[in-house]
User: Fold these one by one.
Assistant:
Number 1:
Amino acid sequence: MKELLSRDDFRKSVFERDGLHCAFCSKPAVDAHHILDRKLFPDGGYYLDNGVAVCEEHHIDCEMGRITPQQIYEQCRITEPALPPGFKQGIAYNKWGQAMSEERYKYPRTPHFPWSPGFSGDDERLADVSQFEGMDIVITEKLDGENTTIYSDGYIHARSMSGTSHPWQAWVKREMAPAAQDLPRGWRLCGENLYGIHSIEYSKLPSFFFIFAIIDNQNIDLA
């Protein structure tokens, strides 16, 4: 039986196991990352074998799924990961709990800048932006819609992964079906669905759907 830790003890234990440094480089650790999303666990998932010490850069890689749970387990020598109820040892899950063979993926949250307004407790926030020093930065304005993923077989879901159909998704599914059918198997389109009005009502849009990612069957963003 694995020991459930408090939030503070989780961070302390993960840091101590990984030598106070990021598990993927020599930089000092700045956070204890949940390998499988804590929301998958009824108790929050604060288990030592569900954590890894990370620097700011590798924390983003883990959150975006660029570093998989399986890669983390190998790096940290975790042979029996802490899993949510109903999950089975030996099955490869992504961070959001989908078995990798299912070919359905939740689009990850994009971290906010430290000074971003409208930040809520459920949002990710960068601790600082020093990692971007000396780099060319492209700043874009986020559209106020619903994050939507479309697969070549016509399956569509928002970030919730429920697959529940809503009236405002019908337009996107109908209009994007021809483009989605041309995708190779295992590829997907990700974009912002603006058909339903959220806090901003747009006018004179060239389309209700704006694609921001084309992701291949290796889970690599090509856009």
Number 2:
Amino acid sequence: MVRSLPPLNWIRAFEAAARHESFRLAAEELGVSAGAVSQKVKALEERLDVALFERRPRGVHLTDAGQRYRDDLGPALDGIAAATERIASAAGGAKLRVTVLPAVAERWLAPRLARFGEQRPEIAIEVSADADVANLAHSAFDLAIHYELPAGHGLATVPLFHDRMSPVCSPAFAADAGLRDPADLLNCRLLYDTTWAEDWPLWFRAAGLPEDGGQRGSGFTLYSMAVEAAAEGLGVAIGHHTLVARDLEAGRLIAPFDLQVPAPRGYAVMVPRWSSGKPGVSDFVDWLQSEAE
């Protein structure tokens, strides 16, 4: 039987535009112009003799037929992607592409990967440190390690761990600054990751101190930089204990106070539908869970 299929580039243009309800955002995702997306969608509508979008002065809106077509196409395209991955893996061995929050990639995942390699040497892991997983379900990544996301992102989510936080610094800094009481921190330089700027206010609030901590601080765009600066004696950083455990064990850092507070968000591993059946994915997720325990 000969299948009556529209050109795949028409389908991809429509699916991206339907998902975003925007020709411009679809064009950015596909690396083409918004005009090219519009032309392909128009050609598809003419082929089907059905209006898939309502064109409005401030954008486009899916028709009822467009919504039904989008819902039917999503699983079909996931199936094509999964079949492609399976045949590629069978031909050349399993390779998993993983996107991870930078701090978790550097300070939790990377030091552990050798253990997975010992267990499953036939699976190659490629790690990309990235703070954004908004489009994971339609990216080239097989899974992500990120903050737990609410339902509705088209991702299977497996919780990994929740962290706890407290100040950390070098032993020499603690001695020189005379850190005996949390209030002593008001006279210290506070180090922080700029994407986690709420960490210090959370801890100070729990300690019954002013949330601004005396407003003396240095921010870094990578958490590892803040930790290294603390280890070298620049000041005091907020220690996410899972991420600084090796430094605490080695004595490079100490936690001068007992007070710990929960980190604002937990971490999870997320798998899009199209890669869930790819060889190695479930094994890697199981291994991540065992490491998180």
Number 3:
Amino acid sequence: MNILISYGTRPEYIKIKPLLDELRGKIDFKLLFTGQHEHLCDFPWDYSVPVTSGENRLDSIVSSLLNLPAHMFEGITHTLVQGDTASAFSLALASFHRRVPVIHLEAGLRTWDIDNPYPEELYRQCISRVASIHFCATPENKLTLQDETGSENIFVVGNTVLDNLTSIQTSYGNDVIVTMHRRENHDRMDEWFKTISSIALENSHLNFILPLHPNPNVSKHKDLLKGINVVEPIDYDNFLELLSSCRLVISDSGGLQEECSFLQKKIIVCRKVTERTESVGTSSVLCEKPEKLQSIFNAIKDDYTLSTECPYGDGTASKKILKHLMEICKHDAS
């Protein structure tokens, strides 16, 4: 087995890194950086793809990856894509065109609404249709894929992002972490920011910290943020330090729902729907619109501690994935 493993965004690399550490020296792989987040070029890679410039960034990413040079697939037996980005979808499709089996990491997440999250929901559904091997975080994800694909190679392993957290101790301070960036929130980002600012001003005993996303559709509303410590994007290790000691999280992130659950933190999820329903009602509280945020925050701001089992894994996903891949190698060789 020789796997071409791709990443194009910071969250993708964070989620594949524990797996790379586990595979190294046991299963051969090459790293492909797709260039979706251009500022990640200092991360390790064997191959990189320059994204052609065009009027639509997503079109540019897809077209660039559909025209990969042949040498990148020489000796490759499988490709591995993580999650639901344009990069993951594009490499999965490019692999399908070349008859290279696809391994999907973080498979089976669904909202069944292709507008939420946009465009990720469509991308992950398409990846599932072409993937040969599926690694899921939860039994619910596996059931979804069994219904959709009928594949026999569907494995529940947990989410690899949690493998990064096993040595971290949880405490509760006065920080409230806020992150907002999703495309489907762009048209109401000003309303989200005004509401969050109002909450921060009414709770001056808490320290609201918002790493500002660089997307212009987010950053252009910076001046609306009052009573909030607005900072530049934070590197992952420092962000985990903040997360492990904060009181609460307000976010439209997908992956943060898993990390918060593992670290016993409550998170207000600022989205119409979530594909991570397993923690709703315990660590996650869904807030579909800005008008509901104030009351939800007030309900949990003094009831923020948790002691529940994380449904997204136990921090050993990479070890489980390696075991399954080794078994598949033996089966293919027999």
